[in-house]
Amino acid sequence: MGRGTGGPQWIDTDRDLDAIVDVLAGVPAYGFDTEFHRERSYYPHLALVQLSWEQGVAVVDPLAVDLAPLRKVLEGKGLGVCHSAEQDLEVLQHACGAVPARLFDTQIAAAFSGLGFASLAKLVAAIAGERLPKGDRLTDWTRRPLDENQIAYAASDVQFLLPIAAELRTRAEEAGTLAWIEEECERVRTRPIGPAEPETAWWRIKGSRSLRGASRGIAQEVAAWRERSAAKRDLPPRFVLPDLALAAIVQRGPHNREELARVRGLDGRYLKGPLEREILSAVARGRELPAESLHLPARGEAPLEEIGPTVALGLALVAQVAEERGIEPSMLASRADVHAVSSGRTSGKLASGWRDQLVGEKLRALLSGRSALTGDGRGGVRLIGCDADGSRPAAGVDGAEVARGAKSRASVRAAARAADAAEDA
């Protein structure tokens, strides 16, 4: 499909990719997106790369071309524009060994513009006045050939990115939030990509925080063995050893084949050959693991259920400030972020940058008792700064600034639910 037809270019030769790279290397901004699958693999398997620039759109077939030349674009001076970029960055890093040197995420920018965590379709409709084509969400993008409708559907994910980004930047400049958006985009761009350290995989085992004694060492070693085996074989960890079996092995700590055979969730595949020996070896290593070799999760935080009311109070303040600023509440702070402040942590997203400036200090004052949250008589809330005896406003806490409050109790509850749902955002 050539540019002359008005449709996206289909790039399936190295020569055509080199030509597109030469074009994109000289543009100030380009849009990008990826299609990939990882349901049955450890690493994402890239199926398509979509690219756009002011004069055109291209869909690259990574099954037919070497993507290495794309690094010239990613590491160049152009601004990479994407919608909800986190997974795409991981995919590009794995496939090309690089991510964009500069990033503008339209979903992040929308969250600062009163549009919430908007889908791309919503942004296209609201800003570009267009409707994205409907496609099959279950399309196997690795199958070839793809028909014209499938290619057009994939291309639509980048077709409007540049004009949307331009409009969101203009709105952010007018609202004074562009620096915050850029800071958040840079945080996403530079965050660690890919799997975590294998020795921390045991933290994801259900009930891991309640483990004690040798069980923690067994959990670390068996989970790390599973993680490394999955990476080596390019399989999801649960395909190497089911989650139920992993938890049961940690609980029982089998010493031999007979005890391993009684573990719930295991079938005959795991009771013969190298798998049986590797599992029992990992259990033995874990049982003897020195305390100084144990990788423990962060300490000092009370279980979330023990400070639920405190978190709810903090989320009400977050909702209030977010309402005033037109920011998606879960972009400002998640339930986990408020939990961390309540537990006394001095690091984290609310400890520095624009979040600290906007809500971090207010939240610390509220949760430490230096200020109070009260109803405003109109169904909303307001922050009142108090000194130790509660008799007068405390220095540095401007109650008037935040007295406008959230518009309704419903908005506060909705914001709390959104923050909970976006805890990993």
Structural notes for this entry:
The protein is of the alpha/beta class and 425 residues long. The chain folds into three domains: 3-190, Ribonuclease H-like superfamily/Ribonuclease H (Nucleotidyltransferase, domain 5); 198-293, Orthogonal Bundle (DNA polymerase, domain 1); 304-421, no CATH class. The chain has helices at residues 14-24, 71-74, 86-96, 106-111, 120-128, 148-159, 161-175, 178-190, 214-233, 237-240, 243-252, 257-261, 273-287, 308-325, 329-332, 335-342, 353-367, 409-421, and strands spanning 9-11, 29-37, 45-53, 56-60, 79-82, 103-105, 371-375, 381-385. The strands form two sheets. Strands 1-4-3-2-5-6 form a six-stranded mixed sheet, sandwiched between helices. Strands 7-8 form a two-stranded antiparallel ribbon. The chain starts with 8 loop residues before the first strand and ends with a helix. A hairpin with a 7-residue loop joins β2 and β3.
Features:
425 residues; alpha/beta; Nucleotidyltransferase, domain 5; DNA polymerase, domain 1; 3 domains; 18 helices; 8 strands; 45% helix
Shape: flat
Number of domains: 3
The CATH class label of the largest domain is Alpha Beta
Q: Strand pairing plus helix content: what structural class? A: alpha/beta
- Kindly report the CATH topology of the largest domain: Nucleotidyltransferase, domain 5
Quaternary status = single chain
What is the share of helical residues? 40-55%
List low-pLDDT spans.
386-425
Number of helical regions: 18
CATH architecture of the largest domain: 2-Layer Sandwich
Largest sheet: 6 strands, mixed
Give the topology string: H per helix, E per strand.
EHEEEHEHEHHHHHHHHHHHHHHEEH
The total strand number stands at 8
> Approximately how much beta-strand content do the residues carry?
5-15%
**Order of strands in the sheet with most strands:** 1-4-3-2-5-6
Mean pLDDT: 87
**Cα-atom Rg, whole angstroms?**
25 Å
The CATH fourth-level homologous superfamily of the largest domain = Ribonuclease H-like superfamily/Ribonuclease H
Distance between the termini: 37 Å
